[in-house]
Amino acid sequence: MSYSLPIRDVASLTQFGRERLSEHFFMREMLYSEVGNVHGVANIPVKPDLALQIGRKLATRLLEPLRQAFGHVSVRSAYRSPTLNAFCNARYVSGDTACWCTDNASNAAKHIWDLPDEHGFHGGTITVVIPSYLDHYERTGDYRPLAWWIRDHIEDYAELIFFRKLCAFNIRWYEGPNTKAIWRNDPPTREQLTGSEMANFYGDHSALYQDITPGRQSFISPVFVC
């Protein structure tokens, strides 16, 4: 189905949400926004067809490999419309720190999937949590094993940014040039773990994530049967 025209009614938005991005992911879960819900700002793509194209690249190239390795992937923040992102950023600038959004120019080809960046390249960012990693993270506070595993196993990521809460991270697909940088963002500090311009980016990193290798009972949370 083509969405070349703006989505302006419930039926069209419902059908749009039913669009399948990959085996396990649909567009509907990519549209949720706390800011939009609280303040009544709709999170509907300006260019729905382009948003679907980017969403499918994110889901097939990044999310499905994560799900195959670690089980369920929880989507925390995905698509943001230019209207919602601009509203969120204005709230943040005015002092509402819960509305943590950069401006539209900075978020183009990141959370704003249907807006190319200043260089004309397309891309998309999605914020996720890996539930099966949480027990390990809560014991150790260490995001690095997961970061190194992604570095070695997911070829198409362009950037990773890890956060303190829940070990959530931004993972980005981008068609333009990139350094595959991996960051830890814990304001006011920001540290870079690796990137293609750093020597530690290359070589065998398997020893750095051997304790979280998918399938190890010490890592994967047990399944409880009632």
Write the layout of secondary structure elements.
Layout: H1 10-17, H2 34-39, H3 48-70, E1 74-77, H4 82-93, H5 104-107, E2 123-129, H6 131-140, H7 144-153, E3 159-163, E4 169-174, E5 181-186, E6 189-194
Question: What does this protein look like?
Answer:
The chain has 226 residues and is α+β, with helices and mostly antiparallel strands. The chain has one domain. Strand 5 (181-186) and strand 6 form a beta hairpin. Strands 1-2-4-3-5-6 form a 6-stranded mixed sheet. It has helices at 10-17, 34-39, 48-70, 82-93, 104-107, 131-140, 144-153; strands spanning 74-77, 123-129, 159-163, 169-174, 181-186, 189-194. Helices cover 32% and strands 15% of the residues.
Short description:
It contains seven helices and six strands, in the order H-H-H-E-H-H-E-H-H-E-E-E-E. The chain has 226 residues and is an alpha+beta fold.
Which tags fit this structure?
alpha+beta, 7 helices, 6 strands, globular, disordered C terminus
